Amino acid sequence: MIKSVGYAANHSFSSLKPLAFEREEPKQNEIEIEVMYCGICHSDIHQVKNEWHNTVYPCMPGHEVVGRVKSVGAAVTRHAVGDLVGVGCMIDSCRQCEPCQAGEQNYCEGPNSWLATYNGPMVPSAKAPTGTNQYGKDNTYGGYSTSLVVPEDFALKIPAGLKPEVAAPILCAGVTTYSPMKHWGMGPGKKVAILGFGGLGDIAQKIAKAMGAEVTVFTTSQAKVNQAPVVGAYAVHVDDHDMLESLKASFDFILSTIPKKTDLTPFVPLLKRDGTLVIVGALEPLAPFNNMQMAAHRNAIAGSLIGSIAETQEILDLCAQHGIGPDIELLDIKNINDAYTRVEDGEVRYRYVIDMATLKPDAVEAA
Amino acid sequence: MIKSVGYAANHSFSSLKPLAFEREEPKQNEIEIEVMYCGICHSDIHQVKNEWHNTVYPCMPGHEVVGRVKSVGAAVTRHAVGDLVGVGCMIDSCRQCEPCQAGEQNYCEGPNSWLATYNGPMVPSAKAPTGTNQYGKDNTYGGYSTSLVVPEDFALKIPAGLKPEVAAPILCAGVTTYSPMKHWGMGPGKKVAILGFGGLGDIAQKIAKAMGAEVTVFTTSQAKVNQAPVVGAYAVHVDDHDMLESLKASFDFILSTIPKKTDLTPFVPLLKRDGTLVIVGALEPLAPFNNMQMAAHRNAIAGSLIGSIAETQEILDLCAQHGIGPDIELLDIKNINDAYTRVEDGEVRYRYVIDMATLKPDAVEAA
Fold first, then answer.
1. Which of A14, A279, A350, B217 sits between 20 and 30 A of A182, alpha carbons compared?
2. Cβ–Cβ of B283/A295 closer than 8 Å?
3. Contact, B127 vs B53, CB < 8 A?
């Protein structure tokens, strides 16, 4: 067993605290990773607070993980000890269903769907049709920890030229915004609007530009509008009705990264005929849409869930190739609970990444 | 001027009554039609009652019109006196914008959008960016009347073998359900669910089968379920939770023809990965969707507005070729107000068609 330390919450109302635990040694096809950096995703906060009503406690979040391979199982061929690797939201899938066979593990239709890096299977055994758990795990501990053990084919290669701490948020925020933009055919000649200018919005607008699209960012934050030229975004204010009116039928694609239920009806008329509005920020009941607007230009509202393993590697490589990545703030893990508050208040510029060097082996005793 | 009689409402709260009026003689490119049959669309009722807050009074509905060409303008080449023709929801469009150039007049982006067969331009002059009305008409009188005058290229040919009274509802109900099924690629090997079993649902399930798809119809009406084999549908009850559970991830496409705001979240999990739910029944604010469901299989919710002129001709021809058409009840126009109540109560099997022979030239004096 691998002695490990991480930060976890024991209840929906409790803060994160150090927790000592053990991970199993890597199996034949698995690798052990010494975690160096882990991004903080807004969904970590939803999960810790049990806002999706499926949290398994203790809850140790973290699915934007970068580290070095420390040991490998006997059958491992993709990674070697010392390699810089990343782990995103998934650490396994059923590998049998049509989406898995098509390489879209993020839409796994197996009895337990995919195995999340933390919190366990997407469809827990109690809700699975067979009542079984093919992964044998009801809870998984994520990357807010010193170590991680995963199947080798769910670990990504961090390309040369991409700093490990910058690569971390690409593993969730990056691929979550890249996957739908790729699926709906964004590229040269296409106009994309990004709603929300937080961790997802920041990387989304950079990726959209790297894909060759023309990008507009919408935010309610005047401070972010003022800062926008720094990161190269063209930002407008959501309350500017004249601006919204002037942008009617302008966009092929709108990506909402707003992390909570929001009335998006003002944005639907901004879509061109056959344009699509994809919501990746809020995995929850939506504010109502108006079909009079949607029908008028045959528009669609769609969901999209992270991205496949192949897409995750693609977006890491694309970011390295274009020299782009999220703007990040490095965090001492001691300050994680304050950091959560700043994420909820939209004050981060733009993604927190935990420096795991700040997590000491004696963190539990010291706490 | 052409002396005409029709049935119109003077206020949102009044019933339909006979109205004597005059139509302009056909211009160079226009044809005059002697109306034989006109279908009753649920949207006629919405419009008469001003439920879309844009009704121009007097409101004379009717956009499922079949009749014989009585006279033609000097430049008309497509139709000849005596021809059997049909008119659907549109009688003109801007003819300049990208959708019009692409033959998708139903998504016209001109300043007034398309000209509706009744009620006038989709974007009335008061709401048009230029403040003008390119059609010179603020109100148009529809097909609940003895005559109609329209540009020749907005009149469809009624194919031999299709009874005129059966053809009428195809001009709106038919093309409204055909267009999205065509756009989203339904055909052999595809599984389609139809929600609602009224005028749209009846023709939709027949069209879907004619296109080669496998069809399931959902209705809350036990009476309609019992009757279903008569029209060849496989129907299930919307409240049957075990049935819904067993149909998870079964459909490539769901078409909701339900004519009012309805919680459709129970149906979203029935979509396969990348499946789309299109709502054609309710042009209004929708009940909220849950993005957790939509994201799980990258599903989309979309709107679709009637269909193009070319698609309308296609579906008329397809119905003639397959010997299909809506089940109809012929109506004496005197009973139109009672008929509206039966439409609202879902009692019609499945579409009312007014027999215009029941509308006498002296209807106003006789009333």
1. A350
2. yes
3. no
